[in-house]
Amino acid sequence: xxxxxxxxxxxxxxxxxxxxxxxxxxxxxxxxxxxxxxxxxxxxxxxxxxxxxxxxxxxxxxxxxxxxxxxxxxxxxxxxxxxxxxxxxxxxxxxxxxxxxxxxxxxxxxxxxxxxxxxxxxxxxxxxxxxxxxxxxxxxxxxxxxxxxxxxxxxxxxxxxxxxx
Length: 165
Fold this sequence. Notes:
single chain; mainly alpha; 2 domains; two-stranded antiparallel ribbon; 4 strands; about 50% helix; elongated
């Protein structure tokens, strides 16, 4: 078996044996009458589930996509002042928040400072404020919630829906 303390990028690739009815290589699970290969990361409905349930690869993927979308919104008119604040917020919610909240009921149990910094940067861009302006003031001025608060709200809504169904 592989060790949990070695990072995923530094692990040697798994070498599966020629196992038919019984596993000899320790990289298979019995599922009914057949053997299933063990994997370190599995993509299910767009969510990368890793063997430790820390969702690091998934968070990095949506963070990179959000940074690219932030650049797109910047070039759509925030830079030149051509885009209204309402239009910029609508673009932000469609292109960035939707990615940040995708399946957050599953992975969003901790404060994610990298995601919060994207929201802070967006708020500074829209309001054209300095880097010394406080984060809560910028977020509140635009009528946004912290990403952590939004994820908690989504979890509560999800469980309310489950319980009342």
